[in-house]
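Tutorial handout. Part one gives the primary structure; part two gives the three-dimensional structure as tokens.
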Amino acid sequence: MKFDHQRAIYLQIVDWVKIKIVTSQWSIGKQVPSVRVLSVELGVTPNTVQRAYRVLEEGDLLMSKRGKGNFVTDDEHLLEKLRKQLANHHVSLFFKEMQELDYSDDQIYEEVTLFINEKERGEENE
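Part two.
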């Protein structure tokens, strides 16, 4: 994982873990990597990972079980809410970038529609 040094690393890890969870790379109710394992994998200090895990616990996305480790929540409603929040965030960023390219909302809609249609045609030809 590459880090943006203009933003706190632990917050970037929080976002990375959220993606892992909503894409089911880290499954509902399953144990997540230990603080030490993830810190080595990401090349950060254990304290940084612990801080990220604490934020995720406070948001009820991770559950800590004493002596067993950390686990992904089994609250499917919460995970669906997170998925929608992340989607909304990405759409918002996309719109902002398109508007910076001087596209109107109607032009953005046309481009997205064209993209989807081309994608569907490509899938039909496979």
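Part three, for discussion. The chain has a mean pLDDT of 95. The two ends are 33 Å apart (CA to CA).
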